[in-house]
Amino acid sequence: MGEHAEIRAVLPQRHPMLLVDRVLALEPGRLIRTVKLVSATEPCYADLPESAEPWRFAYPRSLMIESFGQSAALLWLGDSPPPADDGVLMFAGARDWHFAGSAFPGDVLRHEVRLDSVVADTAFAHGETWIGDRRVATVGTLIATRRPVARPAVPPAGVAHPHP
After folding, report:
1. Which residues make Cβ contacts (< 8 Å) with residue 129, sequence separation at least 6?
2. Which has the closest alpha carbon to 134: 95, 106, 102?
3. How many beta carbons lie within 10 A of that of residue 113, not counting itself?
4. Which SUPFAM superfamilies does this chain map to (predicted)?
């Protein structure tokens, strides 16, 4: 797995929320290295005026976390997505997340994610995010889980819908 089409085949996110551009390395069940290019054309910058101060172009940390989480999902899933009826992946939590810098348009985020363990339908990972040789984030623990897809009950034929 490495090309964007292969990433799209595994992750359910789509533009503009697909935040992994390429897989550089994958050791199934152990380690993944991915990259995400921060572009000035991303929706998070759409309302900023041309004259905005440079610090306002810092990439939102919430999107950096999401990008790291998508990288962790790729590591957990390997090269095949779960069947559609097998549930939905969810970000469950994080501990010891430390930011040591910011990213700006033109920067390339490199996520290095290590899978610690998988217990039932819950995965635990840790890692770092880099821009070049500068570490910008450290993740002590990321927790992801898979939960069943809730499906609305369908009343039998001929039964009126309970709500008008």
Report:
1. 64, 68, 109, 110, 111, 112, 135, 136, 137, 139
2. 102
3. 25
4. Thioesterase/thiol ester dehydrase-isomerase
Both tokens assigned to 109: 């985020």
Instruction: Tell me the two tokens of residue 86.
Output: 């097998």
Strands 22-27, 134-147: parallel, antiparallel or unpaired by DSSP?
unpaired
Chain length of the chain: 164
CATH number, domain 4-147: 3.10.129.10
Please list the residues that pair with 34 across neighbouring strands: 23, 111
Q: Break the chain into its structural domains and give their ranges.
A: 4-147
- At 16-58, the pLDDT tens digits run 999 999 999 999 999 999 999 999 999 999 999 989 999 999 9
E strand segments, the chain: 22-27, 31-37, 88-99, 108-119, 122-131, 134-147
β-bridge pairing 122-131 and 22-27: unpaired
Distance (Å, whole) CA 34 – CA 118: 20
| Token pair of 7 as six digits | 């990433």
Sequence-ordered strand ranges (E) for 29-75: 31-37
The DSSP string of 12-61 is ---TTS----EEEEEETTTEEEEEEE--TTSGGGTT--TT--GGGGSPPH
